[in-house]
């Protein structure tokens, strides 16, 4: 369960419709609760971000395999690339294209998150399709796996956005409390609760 869902009990929020928890009432939380909620949501966002990268990698590989086949988007119906060419192109397939959108910098964890759940989850969405043997599967199976991955990626992205909104809300509320004098920097420097 993610920090938003977990926060329902710990922070006294009522449950909401299926799958989506309401935003917590940050103004009612203590400073230590705000910091804990922020930390929890950011840790869970890192896990979802890692899962999202795994899903994108699998989608990119499936698309490249479909494109490699005769009648793929970039080739005529009678031309096909040898199966080994996909493996040779793997670094280019998985490379990130530099974004043209300017965003604020944020810490990105490069290693896997706690546990192996993300890899197992991404593998399960592939169904019978194995990345090591894509050529053995008909295009229909690859397209079905691709659609499962896309649907799950949309759901994961929505969860990540909710977590990031919660973390941003925690930051804004903590900042407001210091600015308005409800919290004091002296208490923090004296070893008070973080």
Helices and strands, in order, run as HHHHHH
Instruction: Give the termini distance in whole angstroms.
Output: 24 Å
Q: Approximately how much beta-strand content do the residues carry?
A: under 5%
Helix content: 55-70%
Task: Give a short account of the largest sheet.
Answer: none
Note poorly predicted spans. 1-18
Average predicted local confidence, pLDDT: 76
Q: Taking Cα atoms only, what radius of gyration do you get, to the nearest Å? A: 22 Å
Class derived from helix and strand content? mainly alpha
Structure annotation, total helices: 6
- Specify the overall morphology: elongated
* Strand count: 0
Write the layout of secondary structure elements.
Blueprint: H1 3-10, H2 31-68, H3 83-94, H4 117-126, H5 139-179, H6 185-189
Helix pairs in contact: 2-3, 2-4, 2-5
Plain-language structure description:
- This protein is an all-alpha fold and 194 residues long.
- Helices cover 59% and strands 0% of the residues.
- α2 packs antiparallel against α5 (139-179).
- The protein is elongated.
- The relative contact order is 0.17.
- Residues 1-18 have low confidence and may be disordered.
């Amino acid at each position: 369960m993610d920090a938003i869902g977990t926060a329902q009990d710990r922070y006294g929020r009522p449950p909401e419709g299926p799958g989506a928890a309401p935003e917590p009432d940050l103004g009612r939380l203590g400073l230590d609760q705000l910091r804990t909620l922020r930390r929890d949501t950011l840790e869970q966002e890192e896990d979802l971000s890692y899962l999202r990268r795994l899903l994108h990698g699998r989608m990119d590989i499936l698309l490249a395999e479909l494109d490699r086949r005769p009648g793929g988007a970039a080739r005529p119906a009678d031309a096909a690339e040898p199966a080994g060419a996909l493996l040779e192109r793997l670094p280019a397939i998985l490379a990130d294209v530099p974004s043209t959108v300017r965003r604020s910098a944020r810490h990105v964890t490069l290693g896997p998150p706690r546990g192996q759940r993300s890899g197992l989850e991404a593998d399960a969405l592939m169904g019978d399709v194995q990345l090591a043997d894509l050529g053995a599967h008909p295009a229909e199976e690859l397209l079905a796996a691709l659609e499962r991955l896309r649907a799950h990626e949309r759901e994961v992205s929505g969860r990540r956005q909710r977590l990031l909104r919660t973390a941003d809300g925690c930051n804004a509320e903590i900042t407001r409390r210091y600015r308005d004098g409800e919290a004091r920097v002296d208490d923090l420097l004296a070893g008070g609760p973080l």
